[in-house]
Specification:
The protein has a domain of 287 residues. Helix content is 22%, strand content 37%. It contains 11 helices and 27 strands. The N terminus and C terminus are likely disordered.
């Protein structure tokens, strides 16, 4: 049967780059001197510096993970941990420097803000350069600002929650994050306030041989609701860049939070991000994830179902092309009775790409009458790609329902033959199968909010004989 070539996702709209102009770029490496200098430049209070220095100690004590993709090419002596662009944070889009503004214009961020969003933050390298929120939300007590401003303006609120969801000793790269974090977002939604329109933060890394370490902290108070969107991209360079951000989410009693992520880092990026949510009684946490970029990804969002009747759902899709090793998955811990988790994950791999789904489910003795359902499917588009599913379940109580279904395979020749018998070309038949495979997940992604998100999922198919 004639073969069909499936092209990579078109990354041209992300691969443009500006000159490496900056106000300040930290010398490469990681040391106490560098950590202290970052804190000094940010004019941080002593308690923040104390966290940074403690995290640096922990980083040096912990080893690299011995499982998952090989991270040996990461050399912190070749990474600059802080790059300040030539601008401060602006509240008017017109005040953003033209070069940076043009970057976000190309990515569709201003258009998305105007049409779909209640607030936007835009980070360029290590600092947030633009932030806005609708006045109607301010009147309701909603706080949406960059994380550095939150430390200064809401110190007691930040102290109460910062590092409480993701402790700095979780793993080596979260310790690195806490030592050098910069930028990110802070959101507080008061009790009973339900946001009808999403908030979005977009992270753009432009400087080569550097890292981005933004911190996102979101608190959705009792009975409130929020949809938060995170977008990421970077141009491609010949040397390694590093992303080691952190997301801490607190979903209070009866609240709901939907956290959507579109990650399209360049293929020289090591994406070692950490995301975790604590979900209280009768609350709901939804994760929607699209992972398309980076050379290596190790990302496993986590929900801790702390309160009775709390729920979580994870919906994810990834595409691993040539030279990519995307090790993604989900973790959930059931701590209370009548909790539930539903996971639906799909991956595509081609041209030798490696796609892995890795999961952890832990149901503790007190989580009686809980339910967990996991479905993960992998589709390989050629004979040289790889797709794996690696689940781990720890169930310590009998009164639960748990299921795990995994399917990994190639496109069915019989399905192609059947569709061709119905009048479709071989090219169109394969395209239909690929899009049908991705559709149940991709339709959950917030693609309407920006042009670049639409193009991430738009798999281009081209026929070729051979």
């Amino acid at each position: 049967m004639p073969k069909t070539k499936v092209k990579e996702i078109n990354q041209n709209i992300y691969d443009f780059k500006n000159q490496d102009n900056f106000d300040f770029k930290m010398k490469k490496g990681l040391s106490e001197e560098i950590v202290r200098e970052i804190s000094k430049k940010k004019v941080e209070p002593e308690w923040v510096l104390d966290i940074r220095l403690k995290a640096l100690e922990v980083y040096h004590k912990l080893d690299l993970p011995i499982w998952g993709p090989d991270l040996s090419e990461l050399n912190m002596d070749e990474i600059s941990t802080y790059v300040k662009p030539k601008t401060d944070k602006k509240e008017s889009w017109e005040d953003v420097p033209e070069e940076i503004k043009d970057t976000f214009d190309k990515l569709g961020i201003p258009k998305a803000e105007h049409e779909y969003l209640a607030g936007v933050g835009a980070q360029y390298d290590s600092e947030v350069v633009y932030h806005s929120i609708k006045n109607s939300l301010l009147k309701q007590g909603v706080i949406y600002t960059d994380f550095d401003s939150a430390i200064r303006d809401y110190p007691e609120l930040v102290k109460e929650y910062f590092t409480k969801c993701v402790p700095l000793f979780d793993h080596k790269f979260i310790a690195l994050h806490y030592a050098v974090f910069s930028g990110g977002s802070f959101v507080y939604v008061p009790k009973g306030v339900k946001l009808e329109m999403p908030l979005q933060s977009y992270f753009r890394l432009n400087s080569p041989e550097s890292g981005q370490f933004e911190h996102t902290l979101i608190i959705v108070d009792e009975g409130a609701s929020l949809h938060f969107i995170e977008g990421c991209s970077a141009p491609k360079y010949n040397k390694v860049n590093l992303h080691a951000g952190c997301v801490e989410l607190f979903v209070k009693e009866g609240a709901s939070l939907r956290y959507s992520t579109i990650e399209n880092w360049s293929k020289n990026m090591l994406n070692l991000n950490t995301k975790k949510a604590i979900v209280e009684k009768d609350a709901k946490m939804e994760w929607v994830s699209g992972s398309f970029g980076s050379k290596i990804s190790m990302l496993y969002p986590m929900s801790i179902l702390k309160g009775e009747n709390s729920k979580t759902e994870f919906t994810g899709i990834s595409f691993a092309g040539k030279g990519q090793n995307l090790d993604n998955g989900f973790k959930v811990v059931h701590l209370a009775p009548n909790t539930s988790s539903v996971v639906s994950s799909r991956s595509l791999s081609k041209s030798g790409g490696v796609a892995t789904y890795r999961s952890l489910v832990s149901i503790l003795p007190e989580a009686t009458n809980s339910r967990c359902s996991i479905t993960c499917d992998g589709l390989m588009l050629d004979d040289i790609s790889r797709s794996d599913t690696i689940p781990f379940s720890n169930v310590e109580v009998d009164d639960v329902e748990i299921s795990h279904e995994a399917k990994v395979g190639k496109i069915s020749e019989k399905a192609i033959f059947y569709l061709m018998s119905r009048g479709l070309s071989e090219e169109d038949a394969k395209a239909m199968i690929v899009r049908g495979f991705a559709n149940p997940i991709s339709k959950e992604l917030p693609l309407e909010y920006a042009v670049e998100m639409n193009r991430l999922i738009n798999l281009e198919l081209e026929g070729s004989i051979g």
